[in-house]
Amino acid sequence: MRNEKSTEEVARGIRARVFEHTIRNNGGYLSQACSAAEQLAFLYNEALNLGPSTMPLVPPPFAGVPSAANPGYRTGAGYNGPFDAVHDRLFIAPAHYALVAYACLIEVGRMAPEGLEMFNRDGSSVEMIGAEHSPGMEVHNGTLGIGLSTAAGLAWGRRRLGHTGRVCVFMSDGEVQEGQTWEAVQAAAHHGIDNLWALMDVNRQQCDGAMDDVMTVGDVATKFRDFGAVVAECDAHDLPALRAAAATPHPGRPLIVLAHSRPTQGMESLMSRFPRLHYVRFKSEEERARMNAEIAAELGVAPVPLETQ
Amino acid sequence: MEMVNRPYAAAFEAHAVQHPEVLCLSADLTSSCEIDGFRDRHPGQFLSLGMAEQNMLSFAGGLGLAGFRPFLHSFGVFLYRRPYDQLVASIAYPRRKVRLMGFLPGVTTPGGMTHQAIEDIAVMRTLPNMTVLEAGDATEVESIVAEADTVDGPVYCRILRGAVPRLFDTPLRIGQMRVLSEGDDVLVVTAGVTTEEAIRARSALAGAGVSVRHLHLNTLKPFDAAQIVDHAASVRHGVVTLENHLVNGGIGSMVAEALAEAGLARRLVRLGLQDTYAHGGSRPYLMRHYGMDALALVRAIERLTGQSTGIDEGALEAVRVEAVHSAVKAEAL
Fold first, then answer.
1. Domains in chain A, ordered, with CATH?
2. Across B31-172, where does the E strand assignment appear?
3. CATH T-level fold of B178-315
4. Model's pTM, two decimal places?
């Protein structure tokens, strides 16, 4: 399934939607949109082989957690298309990127813009930290580091079933601080799971600030190679480079694409907050108004109309 | 007493070869969990995941997502203590059909604190969507494999290994507790290896004129509270629970909750580990040391009835002492 928009347009749309949402709600995962817009646009708009959404454009309300008493339970994976042998599967491992992922679903026509209005509203499935039942999500990844393991298991199973569809994990670089990430890579390499690949947003930021200040992780590419993966590196904001990296052959091994990104790409005004970028909440109405004007100008969109207090 | 060598090994292999969607996962304890023969004979159905339980649990969740039913083999403690987050997020919440086969429950290992699963029942039974089973003899080990695999969701099983006594001649059925005697003085509730302990005291208690109602549990969740309450209501003096586990959160707690919710006033003595860790030692030594053996049960019954039975260790049936090193065990653990 291909979208009418170019991947560049989708990326621009993601930034604009997350910007608008963050300004209006006086807070949001704005920096993640800066670093990951091209990556998510690339995945949904061209890299992944996804069928049409099986879910309503306007997300249904929260319908309960999985239990024996809830036989109608379903995840939000239907927004990524049907489960079958030929289509790819996508896990969004850093579930706090949900706002960015929802914006992407809207841009590629899989969710109505009204879906974002439900973000973090009580009773909504469009949760702040993407849950299994949130649009575009298939598993809980809110505790970082478990996504790649789950994907490796699914990929092993799909290979055994003869599926041609692959399994992709969108990851964040902070996850390399979790031991489970390395357990997952070594297991995927040991078992030759090569229908698995990951696209990692290497923005070098985490909740407490810059990763180098919080926990030094060293040469991640070398570490992944030593654990048995094929690694490709690229500029996360350079689509031809992303395409080339994702096309790297990786027979018998998982592929990890390290997409080196900038946490303020497209919204340079955010640098005034560096390194506190994980969750942007404006410190004053003055800052909010200034960011509204400056970022809107950078994005080439109109400032968000704000009700006067 | 008939002893059966490695009942799990044969039962798992017989089941798995009939069900290609069953996978055998191991975390570097393959022979210790009696699946070495299966690995050698059915390598295509076996996945070695190394000493990396966090990955193994999430990986198994992914296999479940693909429609497989992985059986995870390790010592029970390694299946929940380190990978608890993965247990919840990757297995319990999404109701994956993952079968967690926990070997060496409670103090059945001399491995000490790190190897002894003493709070596994408490942890597992509080998880929504989880089923918890415990095998008490060779017949239950043999039947727990196929029975666990019928569960529409995840299941944790306490498994006995090596030379296991055969106490029962009918298979384990989920939700069906065994009524081993129907006395009316005291209700005794046991599971796993503590059932054998209670049986050791059976004839001595009968000789002392104590009428015991003895229930053996193999299904710890779902817990049949109504039946427990009915049995408790039919005895005069009260209830003793004897478990290979901490009394907090385990069978003692389950019975207490059942009695309280039903408003049934019966005294309750909870035997097991009393808010303490254990240390390494033989099973008979540990069960004696921590008050989990047949003699501790007799003393608890005396407290409830208020009468001495005159029973001492010599009056109980002999303790079954396992060889520390044995051909049916991979290592002394």
1. 7-59+77-299 (3.40.50.970)
2. 46-48, 69-75, 99-103, 131-134, 155-159, 163-165
3. Rossmann fold (3.40.50)
4. 0.96
